[in-house]
Amino acid sequence: MTAEDWDEFDSTGAALRETARKAKLSSRICNGLIIFHTISATVYVTSILLADADVTDRTTELPLMMRMEYPFVIDTQRKYRLVLATQFIAVIICSWAAALFNALFLTLTLHVGSQVNVLLCWLTEVGAKDVEKSHDFFVTFMTKIIRKHQKIISLSESIENLYSYIALTKFISNTLMICSLGFLIVTALDSPDATEQIMRSLLFYTITNLEAFIFCFAGEYLSNKSKAVGNAAYNFAWYNMKAKNSHVLLFIILRSQRQLKLTAGKMAILSLECFTNIMKASGSYLSVLLAMK
After folding, report:
1. Residue 214 in contact with residue 102, Cβ under 8 Å?
2. How far apart are CA 270 and CA 210, in angstroms?
3. Between the N and C ends of the chain, which has fewer C-beta atoms within 10 Å?
4. Does the pTM of the predicted model rise above 0.90?
5. Backbone dihedral region of 100: left (phi > 0), alpha (psi from -120 to 50 degrees) or beta?
6. Which one-letter DSSP state was computed for residue 272?
């Protein structure tokens, strides 16, 4: 569906420039997320990589990035370093996967936004007098507008169906992780190695907040773009058109009143208000944990 949007534009039009601009922005965001996730994962495991562990001491547990059972005994530095290297690669790959997953979601959302901007451009560039030149021109123009609007709605619904329950999982897990990481940061203030623990958790805490913000921002972004379509159709100077022609705009206005939206499990609408609720819930759970400490 996104490939069709690229194919239908001419090589010099404003529609192509708008779509290309959002594609470049998506590329920059994707690169930024990958770099940020890589730095966060690296900082989180640096202390383990640099630790001088004694593999011959059976009374203490070896510091590992991921606790798991191995079919062999780690009794040499070579084996220990090999295990650490393998785990580090696994951690980096997982962080990249999370970054690309969020970047794909944001890229699809920005693409929908670019197509809404294209639709708005068509509505503002063509005036009511231009539409009234001939009946054929009016039919062609309105057909173009309605088809584009329907494609935008279909793509938005596809994103909603794909990410709805994923967003619900993220909604719950991020709330718990923000609370847990906040608890670790607060309790680490009194420990001897406070700086090390805070640095390990702070970037991870930031990443978790950023992930929640991306989902909520995308929902808010689509909602605002949906409202803009209705406003543009209403400001189309329909009052200068023939009555039988202006009625067609009512269908666009009425359809745009059913806003494009993204939800978490078909229950909560993703918005900046939703992000605020996540932070409030995390803060409440953190207060309970600190009181039980």
Report:
1. yes
2. 14
3. C
4. no
5. alpha
6. H
